[in-house]
């Protein structure tokens, strides 16, 4: 999903204490007793936040005895707040959680949904393997995936036409050639910046890094980055990041990639031709640009890229400290209904329910990359590699594109972070 760098967790003893708090039982209220559920998210003002509010409003309309206190928490220390609230038992009933290793890192704070949410409802949802022990849904999920997400490139058809670009670039050389034509037409080729998000002072680098690693490895080979068979500072990784860093030196990007805050506006206004972003901003782009905007797979590959990031990036978990666990679980079951799928679509997102449809043509383009055109589905790399490595990469990789650090030096720091992991995490 759209990520914020995972800041320093509380001490191991803190996690242990949170785990020892155990699972509070359901409130035991009837279908008519008033229940107020507190829900925390870190979506800021993005489409995810709008969808969350729309879903909770719709649920209250169906179940007037259930109301929600939807709280938008700051992105830069969200998980620290979750941990602290679990210890003090002042936290939410429901909390947005990220899938993959993020879920497993915080599973001691969460209720396993097996037996709490009906099995028939869980069976409707895509991505449960990524929220269960051993990445096996048979062990029961800790999180209900909320939406199907894509890290994705978006481009302006008008900008491409103005520059004489007849086809979307599919590899590094085609990307550089397109940049030359766009610069000649007075259009910024690819705009970077931290506008529209609360994930840090710079752009979120793991969108790009996911595609850099797609261009270098098969999806099965990504496991080698986790277990150390391929070191982060390998020559292949250095080569990929060198080509990525050349985007700025070759004029493919804006000059202020590390400080720009109005990058979304540059793209929607036509000043820039391309942007690397995600599903959470599709509706923003289509509302502003209509049929001018389209999706493309960032072509960070020597050959035509054939992988796409398609992943249930986040979802809702029930906190063990909640005193309304069954009421919270009933809301999670609602997310699998046709009514909830429709709300997600109207909010500009793609529901994680299997077979969910989208009315947004750009979202449909994303689904078609794997569904119609044979692209291999990859997870979000920052969801499936160790969090300590994600943290370091989030700090150093923006400086690579900014020209303040060499790819070799940045990757060496990531390799060091992997080397310092406990042995049980090097899997």
From TrEMBL:
Parts of the chain that traverse the membrane: none
InterPro entries reported for this sequence = Bact_solute-bd_prot1 (IPR050490), SBP (IPR006059)
Q: Which Gene3D superfamilies match?
A: Periplasmic binding protein-like II
Does Signal count among this protein's keywords? yes
Q: Which UniProt keywords apply?
A: Signal
Q: Where is the signal peptide?
A: 1-18
Report the protein name in the record: Raffinose/stachyose/melibiose transport system substrate-binding protein
